[in-house]
Each structure stands twice: as structure tokens, then as C-alpha cells.
Amino acid sequence: MPETGCLAAPAGCADCQSRFAILGTVAPPQGVPGGALDEGKLSITDSRTGSEYELPISSASVRAIELRQIRQDPGEFGMLSYDPGFTNTAACTSRIAYIDGAKGILRYRGYPIEKLAENCTYTEVAYLLLNGELPTRHELEAWDTELMEHSRVHENVKKFMDGFLYDAHPMGVLVSTVAALSTFYPDAKQIDSRSNRYRQQLRLVAKMPTVAAYVYRKSQGYAYPDPDLGLSYTENFIHMLWSGTRRQTNERNLKVLARALDTLFILHAEHEQNCSTSTMRQVASADADPFVGVAAAASALYGPLHGGANEAVLAMLDEIGSASAIPEFMRQVKAGERRLMGFGHRVYKNYDPRARILQRIAAEVFEITGKNPKIDLATQLERIALEDDYFVKRRLYPNVDFYSGIIYQAMGFPIEMFTVLFALGRVAGWLAHWEELMSDPEKRIARPRQIYAGPGEQQFLPIDERLSKARAEVT
Ligand code: CMC
To answer: Does 306 participate in catalysis according to the annotation?
Structure first.
């Protein structure tokens, strides 16, 4: 049985114990997915047999397993739901993020993203995601101290990273290094212990900036500096990125850049059942340790349809080059020859609220770094797209990746680093879902079904008697 207890201090304190207990039993908010309010029955008539079924409705959903009773004859397996890409399947009940895609609303643990981005630090938000509630000042100080104390990596991690070629893609290096951390912490396999899970969450959130900074330094050929424990989480990240290089910045600018990065990490921190978080849950459902889980999640994030889109947006803007090339680019998009990267979302059918906040951050960063001229091209692309029937009909709006890369580039990051920065922020969300899954009484190994469309039983032929049928079909 999983343990319960205080997340802020595994030994526990009266304040946190009671808060945790309340959070664990509180009813989901009314009227939102997860609030089991709409009891009723779904009546189904199977036209093949004339049989009638009543499926219980809860939270505007029916349990897919209820479909199994629908069969033409008793020997049949029973009906499946078919949902490639999981466009209409809830895989879990979660209390972490709420999105209303039609209205453009995003909340973490009930708090609007705008409020968190404006008022919190990233570590405060990571605490919220992992613990279920915002920290008190005392809790935050303790959490920040613990994070800094765990920010170092074993010296062998540096040697491991040295093995990559100078031009290895930073995401490949990040994914491999996080997976390698699993071998440094064999205790991470003890996933049934709540206090042990907390230790791994602490290690991962604490070490991500160090690994991410070393990934960057490796790509530039710089030595790996130690974390500076006297700095804040994000200031220390900047210190590890640029210390001893020509990229120096004065105290005031450092504060502004650290605040902007912190806000970017908050915006990236969590987004419910996206591709990488679902991957984290999938891997964790097999009871794998969280280091390999995070490595798998980061691998999913690497894809250009997901977190890799921020890199793809910059490549796209470079390719378009100037406003005069926009009409031809748009023609190709509308002809289905390519996609407008950084646009569209499975859930948002309105402006992504994170994209709005990014526009504000862009202005603040440009005051320090100078304007990234690509912002003008991006703004024009956005304006043209939002007035175009193709995008209006499909309800395609800029997503978080449309502007983030432009900001990262102005800060001096090479485009290959953009998805690494996304992963750094998202690790809190991945781990919050890991924790939620581990204490979910409905947890089972994720194992979807399929609809088999291959051949029936075939006659086996020894190798010398086979005709080259398969190869002939491919070529
Ligand atoms: N440019 C042009 N057309 C698009 C785009 C786009 N960016 N996105 C969707 N469409 C069209 C698509 O062709 C389809 O048209 P039709 O109905 O005529 O076939 C329709 O809109 C629905 O698209 P879909 O591919 O069925 O939608 P999806 O929910 O499966 O995919 C998406 C969502 C984000 C993968 C997709 O919008 C996309 O490829 N966007 C570009 C990549 C991107 O920016 N990804 C970052 C997502 S947000 C951050 C994150 O998750 O990491």
C-alpha cells in the first residue's frame, strides 16, 4: 500500500499532515471534469441483435469496459471503443490541471495560470503541482533550500556526458543523461514508499537545471561549473549556463532574465494529459522508476508536433525570411503541404492563454536583449492566419510554442536548446502525474487494445520455400 504523508518534509509536520489529508479527500470542484455529478444512464440499442443496454454515466463519461457486455453471441470478446490518438478518451481522473479549451482557460490545482505566472516563482509552482497546494513562506524556503542542496550531479555524470559528439542534439543528450541518472539512484525503484518517491521528485526537480546547463555547455565546449547554492533556482541555472563564458550580464539584467525564464518554466510546467505526460504515466504504470519515466516523457516532448515545435517555429521563420514570402508560405499550408508550426492545439480551440502571457514576457526581455526581429514576422503571420478562413474554420490559434522560441533566442539560446528548456519546466508536471498515479486506487498497467487487421493463420514455410511476397509489396 502506498504511504501517505507530508510532502514538504518527509518526516512530517502537523500543518502539512492535516493539509495533505484534506487534499486527499476533498470532492472535485463542481461542474468540471472529474466532478461526478451527472449521474444517469446511456441507453444503447445494438441494431445487429436488437439488444438494449444501459451504461452508467459519471462525469459525462461512460466506462469503456461497460461496452464489453455488448456482443452478438456469448462467445464473442465484446465491443471495444476505437480511438486512435486518444481524441476522446479519458485515461485517468486527475486533480492537477484544468483546461477549458473553448474558453482558453488553464488552471493548476484550481489557480489561474495568469495569477501564477504573475505572482509566483517556478519552484513555488512546482511545489503546488507536487503537493497539491501553494506553500507557505516557511514551506517555500525549506523547499528552495532542499532543491539547491540536491542540485549537484555525480562527477561520473559529467564523464558520461563527455562521451557525446560535440554536435549531438541537446535533447538526445538530455534524454540519455536523465535515463542514466536512474543508475546513480537505484533506490528510486522503491516506488511504493511515499517518502522515497518524494526524494526522487526532489532530486529530479533539483538536478534538471544542472543537467540542462551542462547539456548547453557540452554543446559549446565549456567546462561544467558547480551550482552556486547561494542563488535562486533560476539564477543558479543562468549562472551554470554562462559563468566563465563571454556571455556575462549585470545584476539587474540577470534579475529580469531570471524572472522571465522563471515565468516561462511556470507556463511549461503542466498541461494535463499531453503526449509526454501520458508517456510518463504509461511508463510509470509498469512501476518503472521516475528517472527512466522522465527520460521517456522527454523523448515524447522532443517531437516537433509537441515540445519540439518551439525549435520548428524558428526554423520556419528563418525559412520564410521576410513578410513578402508569407503569402506563398500560407498557400502551401492551406494546400496541406506543410503546417504553420506553433499553431493549433488538440485541446485549445481559442487563444492559448500561455501565448498571451508570452507576448508580455517578450516585451520585457527585449528591453534587455534588444528586439528579436523575428517577432515582427511572427506577429504578421499570426495576424494573417487569424483573419484567414482556413484557420478560423478549424479554430487554429497560436500555441505556447509560437512565441517561446523567439524569446529564448533573444536570450541567447541556440534553437536546439529550446525543447530542453521546455523539459526543464515540465518535469514538475510529469512528476505530479507520477505521484498522482502512484496513489491512485485505480492504477493498472497501461495496456490498450487493438483492432487486428492482419492476416488469419498462415501456413508456415521453411525459408527456402518462401516467395518474396512481403518485400514485393513494400517496393
Ligand atoms: N497548420 C496548418 N493546419 C493545421 C495545423 C497547423 N499548425 N494544425 C492543425 N491543422 C489542421 C489540420 O490539417 C486539420 O485540417 P483538416 O481537418 O482539413 O484535415 C485540422 O487542422 C485538425 O488538425 P489535427 O492534426 O487533426 O489536430 P490534432 O489535434 O491532431 O493536432 C497539433 C494538434 C498540435 C499536433 C497540430 O495542431 C499541429 O501539428 N500543430 C503544429 C505543431 C505545434 O505547434 N505543436 C505544438 C503544440 S502546443 C505545445 C505542446 O503540446 O507541446
So the answer is: yes
> What secondary structure does DSSP assign to 250-314, as a single string?
-HHHHHHHHHHHHHHHHHHS--SS-HHHHHHHHHHHTT--HHHHHHHHHHHHHSTTTTTHHHHHH
- Structural domain that includes position 307: 93-441
Query: In terms of domains, do 389 and 243 share one?
Result: yes
CB 346 near ligand 1, within 6 Å: yes
Q: Is 334 in the pocket of ligand 1 (CB under 6 A)?
A: no
70 and 128 assigned to the same domain: no
Is 154 among the residues known to form the active site?
no
* Distance from residue 341's CA to the centre of ligand 1 (Å): 8
Report the separation in Å between the CA atom of 181 and the middle of ligand 1, taken as the mean of its atom positions.
34
Nearest to 211 by CA among 163, 153, 284, 272: 153
Ligand 1 centroid from CA 345, angstroms = 6
Residue nearest to atom 3 of ligand 1 (CA): 339
Give yes or no for residue 345 CB within 6 A of ligand 1. yes
| pLDDT in 10s for each residue of the chain, 475 residues | 333 333 333 333 333 333 322 222 223 444 444 445 568 999 999 999 999 999 999 999 999 999 999 999 999 999 999 999 999 999 999 999 999 999 999 999 999 999 999 999 999 999 999 999 999 999 999 999 999 999 999 999 999 999 999 899 999 999 999 999 999 999 999 999 999 999 999 999 999 999 999 999 999 999 999 999 999 999 999 999 999 887 777 778 888 999 999 999 999 999 999 999 999 999 999 999 999 999 999 999 999 999 999 999 999 999 999 999 999 999 999 999 999 999 999 999 998 999 989 989 999 999 999 999 999 999 999 999 999 999 999 999 999 999 999 999 999 999 999 999 999 999 999 999 999 999 999 999 999 999 999 999 999 999 999 987 666 565 5
Do both 53 and 104 map to the same domain?
A: no
* Whole-structure pTM value: 0.89
Does 111 map to a domain?
Answer: yes
Same domain, 245 and 358: yes
Beta-strand ranges (E) seen in 59-168 are 97-100, 105-108, 111-112
* Same domain, residue pair 277 and 203: yes
> In this structure, are 57 and 176 located in the same domain?
no
Nearest protein Cα to ligand 1, atom 28: 346
Q: 319 and 174 in one domain?
A: yes
Query: 306, 376, 388, 440: which one is catalytic?
Result: 306
Work out how many domains the chain is built from and give that number. 2
Residues 63 and 110 in one domain: no
Long-range CB contacts for residues 366-370, cutoff 8 Å, separation at least 24: 366/410, 367/256, 368/253, 368/256, 368/257, 369/257, 369/410, 369/411, 369/412, 370/410
> 109 lies in a domain?
yes
Q: Whose CA is nearest to atom 47 of ligand 1?
A: 306
- Within a domain: residue 342? yes
CA of 344 to the centre of ligand 1 (A): 5
Of 33, 61, 86, the domain-final residue: 86
Secondary structure class of 400 (helix, strand, coil): helix
